[in-house]
Write a structure and sequence with these properties.
This protein is an alpha/beta fold. About 30% of the residues lie in helices and about 30% in strands. Strands 1, 2, 3, 4, 5, 6 and 7 form a seven-stranded mixed β-sheet that branches. The chain is elongated, with a radius of gyration of 17 Å.
């Protein structure tokens, strides 16, 4: 069995991957994450997930490398990580009463032979109608400035939702475990 490597420094993705009870290493890939002109959101996350895995292939030459990337899409526009209160407030205000689709790109690279499985898993969040005060209280409570869409679904962010839909709630946090287990099975790793 090949060793697993997570091509991410995200503590959220590391926590999710640890649920599979497989030993793994992690390393931060160094890639240009800029969106290319005319590139769709789905193509962007697929490309970045694969590039993250490929960026570690030389360093981890006998491994299965997991790459993942995520964007939030609202009214056809890609929402990035807000990085500060002002942007987070603007994102949540724009999402109030609307639906935001999270696209999570997932790649599993076998660095021994260069084969790579790539997919994109969508997950939609339907937001409640939010007041400026609710948004402010939420942002002060969780400070989700490193999260696409400006909330932490695994925390208090759930209080902002009317409903959700998708095949794997883990994809909302950044690593679609159901699809990853299928990819690992194809690569010869059985879980459990």
């Amino acid at each position: 069995m090949s060793s697993l490597v997570l091509a991410s420094s995200s503590p959220y993705r590391r926590e999710l991957l640890s649920r599979l009870r497989q030993p793994f290493e992690w390393a931060a890939p160094s890639i240009d994450e800029a969106r290319r002109k005319g590139e769709s959101a789905e193509h962007l996350v697929r490309r970045l997930a694969q590039e993250k895995a490929l960026a570690l292939a030389e360093r981890f030459g006998e491994h299965l490398i997991i790459g993942s990337d995520q964007v939030a899409v609202l009214d056809g526009q890609v929402l990035g990580k807000p990085h500060d209160y002002r942007r987070a407030h603007a994102q949540l205000s724009a999402a109030s009463g609307k639906s935001v689709t999270f696209l999570t790109g997932l790649a599993l690279l076998d660095s021994r032979d260069g084969s790579c499985q790539v997919d994109c898993i969508p997950y939609t969040v339907h937001f409640r109608d939010l007041t400026a005060e609710q948004i402010e209280r939420y942002l002060k409570a969780e400070e989700p400035y490193d999260c696409a869409g400006s909330f932490k679904a695994e925390g208090l962010g759930i209080s902002l939702f009317r409903s959700t839909e998708g095949s794997d709630v883990n994809s909302l946090i950044g690593l679609p475990l159901i699809r990853l287990v299928e990819m690992l099975d194809t690569a010869g790793v059985q879980i459990p």
